[in-house]
């Protein structure tokens, strides 16, 4: 059963293409069982990307787009019920500021979300994956005249650690994204002693609170030989008993599930025997839909991309800790009344992480017959 826990659409993300419905329809055609919608969270005016500035967007407009995203995602989940399981989430972008944790928490309370992906796209508030000049600017900001990657990598994992400590994201996005624009994206992280110590520290924290690290295939699409994270990181997290999931980080319909055959090989190479997918348990009918906007509308500023307005709703309040999910047969999703299962995260009591063996994925044509432009 194919699944992805990280995606974006051109309807709500300025550097993506296709509508949200295009993405979902493609996932259905490609026989995805679970497809998670995770548009970027709103950001402050000072954090706008060049594409957003060029369109004269501001945080107020991008916040409106974010609400429109949730409304459209909710509509489409109802429309395609029975054809695919859709989870509605967001990708939270971390900035090392005193207000970041409270701001993200207020966003999670604004609408009824099923989970979120916690990611780091900036170091010292400078984008590190947008283009090479901005990456170099971030590197100069932390390294000065020392134009090497090592110090920037250390800062990246330190800021990631802040996010992990303060937010405990259920799913950690592209753990080693920092290598994308570096001088050598294939270099092993163990080559830098201080960097590797930080990687292990961060992995121990994620494993300790029960978070899930995504195996993100977009790194292959961008020319790297391995998905995020690299083999040495996956093996270290595996040895800690950490949990993994699969994501395509698609930004266009044609990228849905792309290079999953390479992901499968990566899992085998890393000795990962089990991965997890998220299941949304609606059987008790208690999903929250009330409105609570006061916490966020007075917050700094916000962002997303381009679309139409929407109503708001509310999800469970944040909690500082996560709990793990014991094994459960992947073909029979657990129910809230089953005492043998626990929610992925107390903030999202209707969402559960279900294990599935990598060996069972190997028998699915989706994971073995992919090429660019594929159609399963």
Q: How would you briefly describe this protein structure?
A:
This protein has helices spanning 20-29, 50-54, 59-79, 100-110, 132-143, 149-167, 193-209, 218-221, 231-239, 260-269, 294-297, 358-361; strands at 3-4, 34-37, 85-88, 91-93, 117-119, 122-123, 126-127, 171-172, 212-216, 243-247, 274-280, 351-357. With 376 residues, the protein is an alpha/beta fold.
Radius of gyration: 19 Å
Number of strands: 12
Spatial order of the strands in the main sheet? 4-5-8-9-10
For the biggest sheet, the summary is: 5 strands, parallel
Tell me which oligomeric state these chains represent.
Answer: single chain
Question: How would you sum up this structure, described in words?
Answer:
The chain is α/β, with parallel strands linked by helices. The chain contains twelve helices and twelve strands. It has a five-stranded parallel β-sheet with strand order 4-5-8-9-10, covered by helices on one side. β4, α4 and β5 form a beta-alpha-beta unit. The longest helix is centred in the first third of the chain and has 21 residues. The protein starts with a strand and ends in a 15-residue tail after the last helix. About 15% of the residues have low confidence.
Fold topology:
Blueprint: E1 3-4, H1 20-29, E2 34-37, H2 50-54, H3 59-79, E3 85-88, E4 91-93, H4 100-110, E5 117-119, E6 122-123, E7 126-127, H5 132-143, H6 149-167, E8 171-172, H7 193-209, E9 212-216, H8 218-221, H9 231-239, E10 243-247, H10 260-269, E11 274-280, H11 294-297, E12 351-357, H12 358-361
Parallel strand pairs: 1-2, 2-3, 4-5, 5-8, 8-9, 9-10
Antiparallel strand pairs: 6-7, 11-12
């Amino acid at each position: 059963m194919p699944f992805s826990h990280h995606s974006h659409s051109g309807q709500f993300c300025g550097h993506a293409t296709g509508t949200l419905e295009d993405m979902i329809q493609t996932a259905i055609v490609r026989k995805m069982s679970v497809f998670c919608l995770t548009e970027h969270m709103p950001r402050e005016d000072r954090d706008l990307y060049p594409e957003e500035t060029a369109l004269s967007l501001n945080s107020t407009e991008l916040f409106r787009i974010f609400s429109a995203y949730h409304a459209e995602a909710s509509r489409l989940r109802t429309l395609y019920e029975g054809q695919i399981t859709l989870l509605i989430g967001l990708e939270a972008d971390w900035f090392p500021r005193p207000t970041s944790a409270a701001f993200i928490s207020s966003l999670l309370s604004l609408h009824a979300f099923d989970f979120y992906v916690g990611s780091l796209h900036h170091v010292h508030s400078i984008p590190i994956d947008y283009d090479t000049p901005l990456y170099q600017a971030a590197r100069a900001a932390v390294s000065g005249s020392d134009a090497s990657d090592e110090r920037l990598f250390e800062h990246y994992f330190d800021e990631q650690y802040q996010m992990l400590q303060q937010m405990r994201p259920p799913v950690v996005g592209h753990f080693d994204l920092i290598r994308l624009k570096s001088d050598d994206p294939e270099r092993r992280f163990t080559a830098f002693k201080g960097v590797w110590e930080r990687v292990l520290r961060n992995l121990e924290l994620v494993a300790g609170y029960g978070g899930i690290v995504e195996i993100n295939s977009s790194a292959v699409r961008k020319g790297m030989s391995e998905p995020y994270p690299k083999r040495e990181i996956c093996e270290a997290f595996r040895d800690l008993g950490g949990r993994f999931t699969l994501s395509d980080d698609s930004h266009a319909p044609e990228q849905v599930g792309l290079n999953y055959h390479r992901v499968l090989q990566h899992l085998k190479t890393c000795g990962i025997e089990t991965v997890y997918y998220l299941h949304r348990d609606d059987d008790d009918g208690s999903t929250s839909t009330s409105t609570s906007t006061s916490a966020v509308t007075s917050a700094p500023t916000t962002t997303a991309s381009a679309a139409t307005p929407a109503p708001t709703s509310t999800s469970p309040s944040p909690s500082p800790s996560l709990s793990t999910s014991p094994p459960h047969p992947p073909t029979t999703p657990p129910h809230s009344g089953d005492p043998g299962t626990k929610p992925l995260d107390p903030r999202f009591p209707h969402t559960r992480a279900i294990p599935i063996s990598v060996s069972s994925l190997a028998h699915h044509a989706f994971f073995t017959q992919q090429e660019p432009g594929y159609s399963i």
